[in-house]
Amino acid sequence: MITFEVQPQGERFTFFSEPDPTAPSVEFEFVGSPGTPGPDPHIHARQVETFRVTSGEMLAKVGKEERRIRAGETLVVPAGQVHSFCNPDPDNPLIIRITLEPALNFQWFMTEMSRLANENGGRWKDIPLLEMAWAAHQVIDEHDLPGVPRFITRPAFALLAGVAFVLGKHRRISPKPSGPAVAGT
After folding, report:
1. Regarding the domain with residue range 2-101, which homologous superfamily does it belong to in the CATH classification?
2. For 159-172, how does the pLDDT look when each residue is reduced to its tens digit (9 = 90+)?
3. Start-to-end C-alpha separation, the chain
4. What are 49's strand-pairing partners?
């Protein structure tokens, strides 16, 4: 089990397995403090994301539709769909079991981004641009930015990743795993 927090963002992630980009899925628990804004709108280009709310209430936006998902309810977001979510309750935490199918490199990417956020102020917006660009370029086929065509994002991330490499910023990012983690490595 791997747990990390992004504070003062108010988010905790608990992954139930080691990173394995070849796995059929990756599952984790997300705990959002009261009023947690959640992630910006984003797209998993090749993954289906399933949210099972176990406690609290999640306000989800999928495409242009907003939905409230309560404890015991499930929301499935197809691959390629713009989505985001938050905890709208100012008094109670939100707990969600989230599954992405297939696993790909989601766990590696989130682990690296949370580490960088915590090292630089504790919020997602505190992640240094070049390090984020290097990591994002490593998983360029797995994510898309809503409203920005790939013919813009791919060269932009490639250019920023190149600058990160030249300046040595890529060394701050752990190599992404190529398969199942091996004990003791």
Report:
1. Jelly Rolls (2.60.120.10)
2. 999 999 999 999 99
3. 16
4. 77, 100
